[in-house]
Amino acid sequence: MISRRNLLFGAAFSSCGCCLALDSSEAWPGSSCRDSAELQSNGSSAGCLLAEDKREDVLSKIKFSLLDKDIRTIAIFARIQSIMEHLYEVKPDFEFYDDSDGPNAYATPERVTGGCDTSGAVIFGENLLLSEKNTSDMWGSAITLIMGHEYGHISQYKIGSIFPAAVQKELHADYLGGWALGRINRADLSHNLIQVLDVGTAAISIFKKGSYDYNNKGFHGTPEQRKQAVLEGYKSGFSGMSVNAAFNTGRQVLGLP
Ligand SMILES: [Zn+2]
Fold it and tell me: Per the CB 3.0–4.6 Å rule, which of 49, 186, 203, 233 could disulfide with 175?
């Protein structure tokens, strides 16, 4: 019998010949039409981090070579990235960065490398990846949720959605992350390659990233709020809701117009 873990790993591993061609993962295959690796960082503070933290130096820490050379990890990550682009209908730049000062991920409405379009950028912490891998055998589920959260921010930027405070923006992104997991598990994707994700593992991961720091203007929500947003979003995705419908329903769930 194939375990859930093997199904996830096997599916992703076998589906990503483009990644296998990468030479020692010297560059992340985020964009096939990238014309420059020159950073365009200007110290923007417009983006969103997965967890409350300092943000001003993220763009200066982008890495073009991962310490983790595990081919399965690279294949899984590339597959998740591809699915997120499909689900959200966006194609932001994607890079890793050195988050050795604390595991985190980042989304910004600005391009940071010479990518294909103007959907902004998702920047994933290498330390965050390692920490999720060390937490659970089902780490792919947590990574998928985190990617869904960050790509949810890209959708917010694309639509120009307004939120009264950071906490609503973050919980909305959590909702969309749950929605993405639900859509994948519903297995109605045209490139249906990752079929089984564990929403419980993913929800626990996001639960641990909540806080009770209400007075922090970057407050992202309590552990309970973040977990609940993911589970609500998951139901919408598993029901087959479209990204636009989920976007609006997520706002309504948070009491927003
Ligand atoms: Zn966020």
Answer: 233
